[in-house]
Amino acid sequence: MDVKTEETAEVRPRKSRSVRDWAVDILCIALAAVIGILAAEALRKDPDASRALLFSDQIVGALACVALWMRRRWPVPLAVTLLVVSIVVPTAAGAMLVAVFTVAVHRPFRTVATVGGLALISEPLQAAIRPDPTLRFPAATATGVLLVLTVIGWGMFVRSRRQLVLSLRERARRAEAEAQLRAERAQRLARERIAREMHDVLAHRLSLLCVHAGALEFRPDAPPAEVARAAGVIRDSAHQALEDLREVIGVLRAPGAEGGGDRPQPTLAALEELVEESRQAGTEVKLDQRVTDAPSVPEATGRTVYRIVQEALTNARKHAGGAAVSVIVEGSPEAGLTLGISNPPGDGSGAAVPGSGQGLIGLAERAALAGGRLSHGPTPDGGFRVDGWLPWRP
Question: Where is the Signal transduction histidine kinase subgroup 3 dimerisation and phosphoacceptor domain (predicted)?
Answer without folding.
Answer: 191-256
